[in-house]
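To fix ideas, we close by showing one paired sequence and structure record:
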Amino acid sequence: MIEIDPAKIDINIHPTKTEIKFDDEKSVYAIIRASVKRSLGKFSVTPSLDFEQETAFNIPVSMYRQEPKLPGITVNPAYNPFKNNDAPPRPSTSGWEQIYEINRRAETVTIPSAFDDIPAEPMHQSACRVLGQIERKYIAALYQNSLILIDQQAAHERILYDQNEAMLGKSPAVSQQELFPQTMTFTHDDFLILSEIADDIRRLGFDLREFGKNTFVLNGVPTGIASGSEKSILESILESYKNHNPTIKSNHRENLLRSVSYNLSVKHGAELDIREMQQLADSLMQSSQPNFTAGGKTTFVVITSSEIEKKFQQKPS
């Protein structure tokens, strides 16, 4: 309880008169603080701190005259941190040689090639024997006692055209599904063209679906297309389809076949191994029209033995 002169307070600071203001606030605060501190200290309500005590360690009286002992280090030479007696026993390593035997019998994972879908006869039964590649553009081969030079890009165009033409009349070809489907947006005109030929595109192995305004989703592509080039190839097919040679009369399917065959064919500058060259040559000779592409380009030329003899019989000028 606090008794104070009413003249030392102001009661006009709150509408309900529940709060007052002291004229000398600091003096009132000091008196209350001293009273509370005395009461708490009198009954030991709070722990006391003796700031006058020596800062040295509190040593028991019984140990005052004893010599201090240095701490010792005990080492167990038989201790092994990697040994756990509670751990289960390790499995036996006997028979480890079988791992290599299993590995030899495992199937080899191969990357799809542009020539995997080309049917080819065994090399010993082939009427065309490949000799090698020239400047990564042409394939030299022996065919019916004549030397032939095959344009690898034109030959592959002819083969792909025949294969795709056969697939158009059947159910959609098997597609190589994309791990992450690609969303592609086109101009309004290109979107209309793709919508017009979408069914034929799907039959050739492009799993293409409409997805909103001027947008398609590509879920799969024909086997043999390198990862990362799907969108550029599809765009190239679209450009080739729009800019085909107007002198050649054809319907939209033939135009599409030529565009797809050109853009998916192996290009000049690509290095082929002997197996790929042999498949290319054999499949070309099995075509119903092996001499020309669908666009009229020559696929191979024949160099007869008489032409070779004339070259050797020429006299220097």
Summary: Residues 106-112, 119-125 have pLDDT under 50 and may be disordered. The longest strand covers residues 176-185. The domain at 123-303 is CATH 3.30.1370.100 (Ribosomal Protein S8; Chain: A, domain 1).
